[in-house]
Amino acid sequence: MTLVYYLDTGVIECLLVPDEFSIGYKSLIAAVEKIRKNSYDIQENEIFYTPLRKETLFYEDNQKILFTMSQ
Predict the structure, then answer these.
(1) Helix, strand or coil for residue 9?
(2) In this structure, are residues 6 and 52 in contact, taking their beta carbons and an 8 Å threshold?
(3) Which of 5, 15, 27, 36 is most enclosed, with most CB atoms within 10 A?
(4) Contacts by 51-59, CB closer than 8 A, 24 or more apart
């Protein structure tokens, strides 16, 4: 939450928040695939992120992200 404070006070201009749910889901799918096939081909996966800026910090969608980060 220190980074959010820095964003709010203007120390930094932008904060990129990765979609942790998607990262976890893709990792779990890859682990299951490895177990089933007993081998795993490395695949490139896109990781989505949300840019947070001071002027959009308190938008409703961003508030949901901040709430999740604080848990």
Answers:
(1) helix
(2) no
(3) 15
(4) 51/14, 51/15, 51/16, 51/17, 52/4, 52/7, 52/14, 52/15, 52/16, 52/17, 53/7, 53/13, 53/14, 53/15, 54/7, 54/8, 54/10, 54/13, 57/4, 57/7, 57/8
Tens of pLDDT, residues 17-71? 888 888 888 888 888 888 888 766 667 778 888 899 999 888 888 888 888 777 7
**pLDDT given at position 53:** 92
The torsion angle over the Cα atoms of residues 67, 28, 40 and 18, rounded to 10 degrees, is -10
What's the whole-model pTM score? Answer: 0.63
Task: Report whether pLDDT(13) > 70.
Answer: yes
